[in-house]
């Protein structure tokens, strides 16, 4: 095999609770990740040596700062292979948007390299390697509906919530995750939402009760930095959405609709012309 094409799906957070600041400087969190059909498209091609990463956008680095590059470095360090890889990333996921765009690229490249070089792998071992890159990178290896703890790297696979029609809206505003957590600490937010109750709702493989506390503790600090989040939610509030929430550290807001046609009508009439807007669906573990 000389070349390979793979998809790198985005994720949303159905809920996110910050449980405190750890001794290592990271925040302890509880979250529920959910994969969606929005995905980057990645091509990998064998080289005689070295790692080359190219992107469809100039906004992303192509050197060691690129998470996909880091994944390739780890792969070649872990395996005695005389060879290299050229990676081309067609970016479809907005950058720094709370959708794990860089993380999913890294996970997809790691898994694809094992396939490209026809090597066997164990997903649990790959997740351990990917944790070196970022907290949500291990999750992106297989996706699905997952309960994550710790920094986001401790995973428990949950029953798939089923195919839901989702509207994704991302303003043209990049939010650095560390800045959001820093502001969260400064605001001294006291959260009291019942994460465990909603977790049990999903674990029981029941129909999701969107009236439970599906909240995101990072939304308050994100709104302080990005007014667009509130503006987007105000628009969605006037539609027939079953549920809506900011994903990750923002600024993306997602909304759940009963069927795709309702979501598409909202997208077609969206008044903010500079926003990134897509109608997608939730997807199971891949």
Automatic annotation (TrEMBL):
Keywords: ATP-binding, Isoprene biosynthesis, Kinase, Nucleotide-binding, Transferase. The keyword Ubl conjugation does not apply. InterPro entries: GHMP_kinase_C_dom (IPR013750), GHMP_kinase_C_sf (IPR036554), GHMP_kinase_N_dom (IPR006204), IspE (IPR004424), Ribosomal_Su5_D2-typ_SF (IPR020568), Ribsml_uS5_D2-typ_fold_subgr (IPR014721). The keyword Membrane does not apply. SUPFAM superfamilies: GHMP Kinase, C-terminal domain, Ribosomal protein S5 domain 2-like. The active site is at residues 11, 136. Pathway: Isoprenoid biosynthesis; isopentenyl diphosphate biosynthesis via DXP pathway; isopentenyl diphosphate from 1-deoxy-D-xylulose 5-phosphate: step 3/6. It holds the Pfam family GHMP_kinases_C. It catalyses: 4-CDP-2-C-methyl-D-erythritol + ATP = 4-CDP-2-C-methyl-D-erythritol 2-phosphate + ADP + H(+). Residues 202-273 form the GHMP kinase C-terminal domain. ATP binds at residues 94-104. GO terms for molecular function: 4-(cytidine 5'-diphospho)-2-C-methyl-D-erythritol kinase activity; ATP binding. NCBIfam families: ispE. Catalyzes the phosphorylation of the position 2 hydroxy group of 4-diphosphocytidyl-2C-methyl-D-erythritol. This is 4-diphosphocytidyl-2-C-methyl-D-erythritol kinase.
């Amino acid at each position: 095999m000389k070349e390979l094409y793979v998809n790198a799906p985005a994720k949303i957070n159905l809920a996110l609770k910050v449980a405190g600041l750890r001794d290592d400087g990271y925040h302890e969190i509880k979250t529920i990740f959910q994969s969606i059909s929005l995905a980057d498209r990645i091509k990998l091609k064998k080289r005689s040596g070295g790692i080359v990463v190219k992107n469809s956008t100039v906004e992303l680095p192509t050197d060691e700062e690129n998470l996909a590059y880091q994944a390739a470095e780890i792969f070649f360090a872990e395996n005695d292979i005389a060879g290299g890889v050229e990676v081309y990333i067609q970016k479809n996921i907005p950058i720094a948007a709370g959708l794990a765009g860089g993380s999913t690229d890294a996970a997809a490249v790691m898994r694809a390299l094992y396939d490209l070089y026809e090597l066997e792998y164990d997903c649990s071992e790959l997740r351990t390697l990917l944790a070196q890159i970022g907290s949500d990178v291990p999750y992106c290896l297989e996706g699905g509906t997952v309960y994550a703890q710790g920094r986001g790297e401790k995973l428990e696979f949950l029953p798939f919530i089923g195919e839901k029609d989702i509207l994704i809206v991302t303003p043209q505003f990049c939010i650095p995750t560390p800045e959001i957590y820093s502001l969260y600490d400064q605001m001294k937010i006291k959260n009291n939402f019942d994460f465990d109750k909603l977790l049990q709702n999903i674990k029981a493989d029941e129909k999701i009760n969107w009236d439970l506390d599906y909240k995101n503790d990072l939304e308050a600090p994100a709104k302080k930095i990005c007014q667009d989040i509130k503006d987007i939610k105000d628009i969605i509030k006037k539609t027939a959405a079953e549920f809506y929430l900011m994903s990750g550290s923002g600024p993306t807001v997602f909304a759940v609709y009963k069927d795709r046609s309702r979501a598409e009508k909202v997208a077609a009439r969206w008044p903010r012309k500079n926003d990134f807007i897509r109608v997608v669906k939730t997807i199971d573990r891949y």
